[in-house]
Amino acid sequence: MTMHQPAFHFRPAVNWMNDPNGLCQVDGWYHMFYQYNPHGSRWGDMHWGHARSRDLVRWEELPIAMAPLEEKGEIHCFSGGCCKDEQGRPHFFYTSIGPEEAGRDCRDGAQQWMAEPVEGDLTRLEQTDAYAITDEIHGGMHVREWRDPCVIRWQGQYLMTLGGCLEERGCVLLYTSPDMKHWTYRHVLAQSAVADGKPWECPNFFELDGKFVLFYSPCGPVMAQVGTLDDELRFHCEREEVLDPGGWSGYYAPQAFRDEAGRTLLFGWMPECDGGRDKGWSGMMSLPRELRVRQGGLMAWPAANVDTLAEWTQVQVGPGETCLAQDGWRLMLRFRCRVDAPVTLRLFAGRTGETLLRLTPEGELTLDRQDSCVEAEVDRSAISHRVELPGGEAEVFLALDGSAIECAVNGQWLSGRVYPERENCGVYLVCSQPVTVRVGRVK
Known about the structure:
Blueprint: E1 15-26, E2 29-37, E3 47-53, E4 60-66, E5 76-84, E6 90-97, E7 111-117, E8 125-133, E9 144-154, E10 157-166, E11 169-177, E12 184-191, E13 201-208, E14 211-217, E15 222-229, E16 235-244, E17 252-258, E18 264-270, E19 281-282, E20 284-285, E21 289-294, E22 297-302, E23 310-317, E24 320-325, E25 330-338, E26 343-350, E27 353-359, E28 364-368, E29 383-386, E30 393-401, E31 404-409, E32 412-417, E33 426-431, E34 435-442
Parallel strand pairs: 1-19
Antiparallel strand pairs: 1-2, 2-3, 3-4, 5-6, 6-7, 7-8, 9-10, 10-11, 11-12, 13-14, 14-15, 15-16, 17-18, 18-20, 18-21, 21-22, 23-34, 24-33, 25-30, 25-34, 26-27, 26-33, 27-28, 28-29, 30-31, 31-32
């Protein structure tokens, strides 16, 4: 349905998209590559799609940047990242997948390849297997589901992290190189305590605000660790937390990058959870978030340019229930409040359903999707997150865009997807005290 299509979250015009790849800023342009199937709206035949933007929020879709190199036996270009060298030139890394019969499948035969821009505008990336990294780098230790390279420059060398599964436990592994071409395996950087067979996907590892940050997607809510890196390149986790609980229901495989202004920015994939309906498109990107380490934890705020998407008005509401919008398909809200009693937002509310976003004084943030629609195949399970409320206060940001919901409370995020009926589009705030709400209607 057209009302479920996003208006200000990026997606390609048609077909399947998933993970953000190779995020970077070059000569003022932000570049977003992403997993893309040019042949349909279901997963398969992975290419790197491409879009660019001057302001992070208004994107121009460009032609496919990288396709599988069939003459080299490649059938998928899986996820990866971008690293700039000392001269500021971007280099790209990704996971190359071939056919199972050739021993190159994603479960046991992945390789890590490089790609270089053919032109300065990054419209086309040319991959090479000249410096391919194979599982042999581990010296007999077999890592299953080994993929998604993240490369950073640090103290005169390059560090690469890759996700996978080792002895049935999800893990992130560390590698080093002097030149981004010749790599040495170092050790397991972090690993799950549970042998559930689930790989840790799309790891990101980087320095921020005097700490090292590791986040990854373990086939569920996105997890983050904050800690230190010692002289032996051992990571010491000081705090572990949920970065976004959305997972397969709203937020997965995020990627961070540093822009030319020095900000560390984050995009994530917002997958569908509508039972696999063929709409001609599937998936979208989140809004950009700026990451910081605060009070020892990883927090994020909407990037500054997000507010430029809307025309803002100010409304005084409460106590009790107040209608903020009768047509809330494309809307952003900002407000501060004390949470002495539960604060509830009724989203996409109407005669046949509603979605509830509830924050309790104990810091339990819940997206209740039970009555979000009438279609049985849609995932309507609740998504919950424990957030911190210093002094019992909450600073709330909310974005509604068709079927996308993104909410931040004091820099802690919860994202989800819902598929309401067309007539269900009201937005109401229920609170126990007067609140000043900024309402942003997307232009």
